[in-house]
């Protein structure tokens, strides 16, 4: 059983898999507490109903896409071995979006690490990350991004993403930064522009 805030079929709006049809499973519960979080209602796990893994997988199977994205909250607060094995058995790719602040569990085709200053990521998650996505809230976040870029695998994809409410201010800085540091790419929350969940 896992606390499910919401699950929905949409397009992945961010990062490497942007634009792909995906079934999102948003788990309730987070102990990171980012001030700019856009899903603060996910933080308290007790406010979200517990759902059996078989029900979660059945919900995903009702849609034609076979990419499942587990997010939160902070999904690694829970052991995700059973959920990911069940999804894989039904032919799903398994992706996770995590701050990396809790121990790694689950069987993943893609790990998106988005480190937060409020609770640092664990070395095991940094080592396993396929994608590093750093939210740029202010100018000091570029140095924060480079700190983790130096720690992830050389094959890890690097993304800078403006915090949504500071986009007008931060996006020009990010564009200039990427032009000067082309190992980085831009991630924008495209789902918000096209008005899908």
UniProtKB/TrEMBL annotation:
<feature type="binding site">
    <location>
        <position position="34"/>
    </location>
    <ligand>
        <name>[4Fe-4S] cluster</name>
    </ligand>
</feature>
<keyword id="KW-0460">Magnesium</keyword>
<keyword id="KW-0671">Queuosine biosynthesis</keyword>
<feature type="binding site">
    <location>
        <begin position="11"/>
        <end position="13"/>
    </location>
    <ligand>
        <name>substrate</name>
    </ligand>
</feature>
<comment type="pathway">
    <text>Purine metabolism; 7-cyano-7-deazaguanine biosynthesis.</text>
</comment>
<keyword id="KW-0004">4Fe-4S</keyword>
<feature type="binding site">
    <location>
        <position position="73"/>
    </location>
    <ligand>
        <name>S-adenosyl-L-methionine</name>
    </ligand>
</feature>
<keyword id="KW-0479">Metal-binding</keyword>
<feature type="binding site">
    <location>
        <position position="26"/>
    </location>
    <ligand>
        <name>substrate</name>
    </ligand>
</feature>
<dbReference type="Pfam" id="PF04055">
    <property type="entry name" value="Radical_SAM"/>
</dbReference>
<keyword id="KW-0456">Lyase</keyword>
<dbReference type="InterPro" id="IPR024924">
    <property type="entry name" value="7-CO-7-deazaguanine_synth-like"/>
</dbReference>
<keyword id="KW-0408">Iron</keyword>
<feature type="binding site">
    <location>
        <begin position="36"/>
        <end position="38"/>
    </location>
    <ligand>
        <name>S-adenosyl-L-methionine</name>
    </ligand>
</feature>
<comment type="similarity">
    <text>Belongs to the radical SAM superfamily. 7-carboxy-7-deazaguanine synthase family.</text>
</comment>
<dbReference type="InterPro" id="IPR013785">
    <property type="entry name" value="Aldolase_TIM"/>
</dbReference>
<feature type="binding site">
    <location>
        <position position="30"/>
    </location>
    <ligand>
        <name>[4Fe-4S] cluster</name>
    </ligand>
</feature>
<keyword id="KW-0949">S-adenosyl-L-methionine</keyword>
<protein>
    <recommendedName>
        <fullName>7-carboxy-7-deazaguanine synthase</fullName>
        <ecNumber>4.3.99.3</ecNumber>
    </recommendedName>
</protein>
<feature type="binding site">
    <location>
        <position position="71"/>
    </location>
    <ligand>
        <name>substrate</name>
    </ligand>
</feature>
<comment type="subunit">
    <text>Homodimer.</text>
</comment>
<feature type="binding site">
    <location>
        <position position="197"/>
    </location>
    <ligand>
        <name>substrate</name>
    </ligand>
</feature>
<dbReference type="InterPro" id="IPR058240">
    <property type="entry name" value="rSAM_sf"/>
</dbReference>
<dbReference type="InterPro" id="IPR007197">
    <property type="entry name" value="rSAM"/>
</dbReference>
<comment type="function">
    <text>Catalyzes the complex heterocyclic radical-mediated conversion of 6-carboxy-5,6,7,8-tetrahydropterin (CPH4) to 7-carboxy-7-deazaguanine (CDG), a step common to the biosynthetic pathways of all 7-deazapurine-containing compounds.</text>
</comment>
<feature type="binding site">
    <location>
        <begin position="114"/>
        <end position="116"/>
    </location>
    <ligand>
        <name>S-adenosyl-L-methionine</name>
    </ligand>
</feature>
<feature type="binding site">
    <location>
        <position position="37"/>
    </location>
    <ligand>
        <name>[4Fe-4S] cluster</name>
    </ligand>
</feature>
<keyword id="KW-0411">Iron-sulfur</keyword>
<feature type="domain" description="Radical SAM core">
    <location>
        <begin position="17"/>
        <end position="197"/>
    </location>
</feature>
């Amino acid at each position: 059983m896992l606390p499910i805030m919401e699950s929905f079929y949409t397009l992945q709006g961010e990062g490497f898999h942007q634009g792909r049809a995906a079934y999102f499973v948003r788990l309730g519960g987070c102990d990171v507490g980012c001030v700019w979080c856009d899903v603060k209602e996910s933080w308290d796990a007790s406010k979200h109903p517990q759902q059996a893994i078989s029900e979660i997988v059945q919900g995903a199977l009702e849609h034609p896409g076979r990419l499942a994205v587990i997010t939160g909250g902070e999904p690694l607060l829970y052991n995700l071995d059973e959920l990911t094995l069940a999804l894989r058995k039904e032919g799903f790719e398994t992706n996770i979006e995590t701050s990396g602040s809790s121990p790694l569990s689950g069987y993943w085709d893609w790990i998106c690490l988005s480190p937060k200053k409020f609770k640092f990521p664990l070395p095991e998650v940094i080592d396993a990350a396929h994608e590093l996505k750093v939210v740029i809230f202010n100018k000091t976040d570029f140095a924060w991004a480079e700190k983790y870029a130096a720690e992830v695998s050389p094959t890890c994809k690097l993304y800078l993403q403006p915090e949504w409410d500071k986009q007008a201010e931060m996006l020009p800085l990010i564009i200039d930064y990427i032009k000067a540091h082309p190992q980085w790419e831009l991630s924008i929350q495209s789902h918000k522009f096209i008005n899908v969940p």
